[in-house]
Amino acid sequence: MSPLARLLADGRGRRVYSGAAWSAGGPGGPVDRGWTGTRSWDGPPLDGGDLWDLASVTKPVVGLAVMALVERGVLGLDATVGTYLPDYRGGDKAELTLRQLLTHTSGIPGQVALYREHPARASLLDAVRLLPLTAKPGTRVQYSSQGFIILGLIAEAAAGQPLDVLVRDLVCAPLGMRQTVFRPDAEGRARAVATENCPWRGRVVVGEVHDENAVVLGGVGGHAGLFSTLGDMELLGTALAGGGRGLLRPGTFALMTAPHTDGLELRRALAWQGRDPAGSPVGTVFGGDSYGHTGFTGTSLWVDPATRRYAVLLTNRVHPTRAGDGITTVRRAFHDTCGIMPDRQRQGARPRKAGG
C-alpha cells in the first residue's frame, strides 16, 4: 500500500468521508492512483468509474473555456461586464472586467445563500445582478461564486452557446474527457458518489449538484455543477502538467496560470487559486508558483509547473453532513506527500495500478 493509499484509508477510518479517489503524476500520466471506501456509508464500494461532484473545481474548468474564447477573440480580459450583459449596464457591476471576475477581485461578495429567498432561476439571477459590492474592485481578493455565475453568463452571451456546450467543446472534447458533464444522465447518476443529507432538499443528494444556488440555476453554473471521474481528472491533470497542451496556446496558458494578485492578501491566477504564503489548503511542499483549485465537496486539483506534477483528490467529505473540518488536515497531508514522492516515471517504472 502506497503512502497516499494509507493516508486516504485513514481518512475514511476517521469518517472524514465515505470514499476517496486519487491520482498523482506528471505529463506522462499517473505514477500513483487508486480509490478507497464506498460511494456512501451504506453504499457499494468504489470501483474507479465513480462520478464525483467537483463543486468549485468547476471554476477553473469554466475558466479554461473562457480563456479559449479570449484566445479566439470572442472575449476580452479587460472588457467589461456591461459590454456583454445589457441588463448590467448602469449598475455597480457594469465596469467590472473579466480579469477581475477571474481573479476574485471584483468586489462581488461570495458564499451568499441566495437560493433561500430566490428559488427560481430568473429571481436568483436578478439577485446576483443586484447584490451590492462589498469591496472596491481591484483592492481585495474576495472569493466570489457569484462572480463566476456572471462569468458563465458572459461566456454564453458572447459565444451564443450554453455554458455546458462551451465546456464540452472547448475543454472536455480536446482532452477526451467524455465522463465530465453538467447534469449527469440516469447512467451517470447510478455511478455517482453521495454528498450531503441536504436539509433544504430533505434527502441525501446523489448525482445532483450539491451547491444549492447551482440547483436553482438548473445544474449548470460558472461556479459549480460539473461532475467527473478519476480517469477524466487525470487527463486534465496530465494536460496541465504538460503546459496546457491540447487546451490553450503556450502564451495564453502561461498568462492564465501566472499569479495576478501579488501585493494582495491571497494569491490568484486567472480562475485558479495560487499557493498562498500562509495557510494554503494544499500544505507547504508544492512550489510557490503552483496553482489549482479546491472544491467544497472535498475535491481538489493542483499542479506544480516547476516539477511538472499534478495531484487529484476526490472525496465526499460533505457526506452525510458538511459539519467538521477533517478534510483540511487530510488535504494538506495528501498534497505534501505528493510533493515529495519520487518520480517513478523518470526512473522508468510503470504507473501504479488502481486498487480498492
Offer a few descriptive terms.
single chain, 356 residues, alpha+beta, Beta-lactamase, 2 domains, 6-stranded antiparallel sheet, 3-stranded antiparallel sheet, 11 strands, 33% helix, disordered C terminus, Beta-lactam/transpept-like, Diverse_Enzym_Activities
Distance between the termini: 10 Å
CATH domain class of the largest domain: Alpha Beta
The string of secondary-structure elements, in order, is HEEEHHHHHHEHEEHEHHEEEEH
Task: Please identify which CATH superfamily of the largest domain we are dealing with.
Answer: DD-peptidase/beta-lactamase superfamily
Continuous helix count = 12
Low-confidence stretches: 345-356
Query: What is the average per-residue confidence, as pLDDT, rounded to a whole number?
Result: 95
Widest sheet: strand ordering:
2-1-11-10-9-8
